[in-house]
Amino acid sequence: MKMARENAKDIIAMGFDLNKTFIFHDFDFMGKCPSFYQNIIRIQKCVTFNQAKGIFGFTDSDPIGKIGFPAVQAAPCLSTCFPFIFGDKKVNCLIPCAIDQDPYFRMTRDVCPRLGFPKPALIHSTFFPALQGAKSKMSASELNSAIFLTDTPKKIKDKINKHAFSGGKPTLEEHRAKGGDPDIDVPFQLLQFFLEDDARLEEIRVAYTKGELLSGEMKKIAIETLQPIVAEHQARRKDVTDQVLDEFLSLRKLTC
Fold first, then answer.
1. Distance between CA 93 and CA 80 in Å, rounded?
2. Predicted confidence (pLDDT) per residue in 122-158, tens digit
3. How far is the CA of 184 from the CAs of 55, 181, 220, in angstroms?
4. What's the pTM?
5. Distance between CA atoms of residues 160 and 166, nearest Å
6. Counting C-beta atoms within 10 Å of the first and last residue's C-beta, which end of the chain has fewer, N or C?
7. pLDDT averaged over every residue in the chain
8. Residue 220 phi/psi, 5° resolution?
9. What is the C-alpha to C-alpha distance for residues 57 and 54, in angstroms, rounded to an integer?
């Protein structure tokens, strides 16, 4: 619960409007809103064990908690889980998620018409790259695998300079002659997410590909782009107190 609350504070700090946003935690919400649990049971009745095994790769040795969880993940797609917001209206649902969550909602799209609800729609987001490149994974236990929202400007600079995988060539002469590869260059990939100016991003890509921009210069641009973004987030997050969080978690009518 503590980690969930801390994550929720980071979400709120992104600028969500209290009057239009309700945040919930499954453990807490299920005890406050019976319709949430009722919809979970309805979904569970629509999916057989064989179907769950085919979708998620469950085996006979998996605990029953894993088998039942997809219905918990799916239930918020049904607007009647939130009667204090939607009443008994059956409202369309849009889900922004990473591709690894797709199986849950493909299952949900099959179930919803059987329960009289519209199928949810999905927007698939792209994963941030790990600092060490495509062959590695970001991990909270590996502090140098990612830029964290708690990192100081110095920490961001050190991480990118020391650990960010470069698409540059081994020597200055070779890089000038052949150019770098932005497709595998982690600092450039970070810029694809965080640099707002698309024209400037294209200039950087072309210059790097031609060898006019060096790996160190690419890292410098990434550092100078990320440092103010993270610092601004940290400043906003300081204003998200436990009281503010509890307001977002409270059951209430929204002004949608």
1. 11
2. 999 888 889 998 777 777 778 888 999 999 999 999 9
3. 32, 6, 17
4. 0.86
5. 10
6. N
7. 94
8. -60, -40
9. 6
With 0-12 CB in 10 A as exposed, 13-18 as middle and 19+ as buried, what is 87? exposed
CA 11 to chain centre: 10
**Residue range 229-251: mean pLDDT, rounded:** 97
C-alpha to C-alpha distances, 252 to 20, 82, 141, 249, nearest whole angstrom: 10, 10, 37, 9
Query: Tokens standing for 220?
Result: 């410098």
Both structure tokens of 166: 């470069």
Residue type, 49: F
Q: What is the DSSP string of the chain?
A: -HHHHHHHHHHHHTT--GGG-----HHHHHHH-HHHHHHHHHHHHHS-HHHHHHHH---TTS-HHHHHHHHHHHGGGSGGG-HHHHTT-----EEEEEGGGHHHHHHHHHHGGGGT-PPPEEEEEPPPPPTT-TTS--BTTBTTSS--TT--HHHHHHHHHHHS---S-SSHHHHHHH---TTT-HHHHHHHHH---HHHHHHHHHHHHHTSS-HHHHHHHHHHHHHHHHHHHHHHHTT--HHHHHHHHS------
d(CA 226, CA 233): 11
Find, among 30, 76, 67, the residue nearest to 47 by Cα.
67
Report pLDDT for 256.
Answer: 67
DSSP string, 60-100: TTS-HHHHHHHHHHHGGGSGGG-HHHHTT-----EEEEEGG
Domains parsed from the chain with CATH numbers: 1-128 (3.40.50.620), 129-250 (1.10.240.10)
